[in-house]
Specification:
The complex is a heterodimer.
Chain A lengths: L2 E5 L2 E4 L5 E8 L5 E7 L5 E9 L2 E4 L6 E6 L2 E6 L8 E8 L7 E2 L3 E5 L1
Chain B lengths: L8 E5 L4 E6 L9 E6 L6 E6 L4 E2 L4 E4 L5 E6 L8 E6 L12 E6 L1
Parallel strand pairs in B: 1-9
Antiparallel strand pairs in B: 2-7, 3-4, 3-8, 5-6, 6-7, 8-9
The chains are: A mainly beta, B mainly beta.
């Protein structure tokens, strides 16, 4: 069966520090991968999605970047965090374009 | 994405049916409607999806109008554990934005 792993679960980082959040999917190949961010009490904002290695689309201009070094690995990064980067970050995958998302357990990031 | 519109909040008595509406008037003919729910501090969980016909699984039923411009998620016997935010989405090209959803509060 397919599983998605996302870590860490919580993270407190100072302003100006770098960020690296990792997401991996097991039990499937060539998944579509997604990074979402959720502000407190709000819906999910799509940040990046990828349909293959080196095929990453950015939905919202921001202080973040994404990379997909392997087929089932998706990384969210920042060189210098801002206070506004705080939020709940969720990784998700789908096997194609018409199937439902499976989400990871999320990373709660607090920038101080 | 086809835009979806949901009421911000609803209440339901425990043991009663919860009916959560969603409008998606710009949906195209080959786009599916998906429903998810999110319990606090967790990732959203898939509930059900449909294209044209009504669907039922162990969690819920999905009723889609004949013109496909709206749908209703039905939780037949709501429990306190069904208290969550419910999202209706219509993915396009494999990607979607989840709006604010409907916060369902099941009350004893």
């Amino acid at each position: 069966s397919q599983t998605i792993h996302q870590w860490p679960a919580t993270l407190v980082q100072p302003v100006g520090s770098p960020l690296s959040l990792e997401c991996t999917v097991e039990g499937t190949s060539n998944p579509n991968l997604y990074w979402y961010r959720q502000a407190a009490g709000r819906g999910l904002q799509l940040l990046f999605y990828s349909i293959g290695i080196d095929q990453i689309s950015s939905e919202v201009p921001q202080n973040l970047s994404a990379s997909r070094p392997q087929d089932r690995q998706f990384i969210l990064s920042s060189k210098k965090l801002l206070l506004s980067d705080s939020g709940f970050y969720l990784c998700a995958w789908t096997p194609g374009t018409v199937y439902g998302y499976t989400f990871g357990s999320g990373t709660r990031l607090t920038v101080v | 994405d086809a835009k979806t519109t949901q009421p911000p909040s609803m209440d339901c008595a425990e043991g009663r049916a919860a009916n959560l509406p969603c409008n998606h008037s710009t949906i195209s003919g080959n786009e599916y409607v998906y429903w998810y729910r999110q319990i606090h501090s967790q990732g959203p969980q898939y509930i059900i999806h449909g294209l044209k016909n009504n669907e039922t699984n162990e969690m819920a039923s999905l009723i889609i109008t004949e013109d496909r411009k709206s749908s209703t998620l039905i939780l037949p016997h709501a429990t306190l554990r069904d208290t969550a935010v419910y999202y209706c989405i219509v993915p396009n090209a494999g990607k979607s934005t989840f709006g604010d959803g409907t916060t369902l509060t099941v009350k004893p």
